[in-house]
What we know:
By secondary structure, the protein is an alpha+beta fold.
Amino acid sequence: MPATPPSSDKRTIEPMVQKTVANISDAQGSPLAVAIEVSGHHVFGDEPVAQGGKNLGPTPYDLLTAALGECTAITIRWYAMREGWPVEHVDVQVRHGKKLEAGSNQMIDEFHKTISIVAPDLSEAQRQKLFDVAGKCPIHKTLTGTIRIETDHGQANNRGTS
């Protein structure tokens, strides 16, 4: 993975720290739709009709699940390129669900990844190394590591008041 992002990229890298800023605001077309801007990319998010949205974009869990799959595929490709290993195709399917943890009444999030790598010229040891590397992608490590979320109060914008 690149050590320094392009200058137009909104991420900044400090020693051992990568920061990404995403801006999310209300969007038109659905009561729950949001406009997402991150690293120069624009995406709409929404909820399905059954949840009160109009299904105008992926749900937050869709994006989280896709982020894990994207990161896994990129990490495999990056490692293979670094090693000079010929990989023709990487396919990652990620399923996310919530389930009751055995012996508990606590719901847990479960992600299941299925990884297919087309690389006929690799040895079995090289293929296994790529599968091992897949579990070390940054999003995988974030989801399985210690997470801290801090919430600040932003400036209130009282529209229509004087």
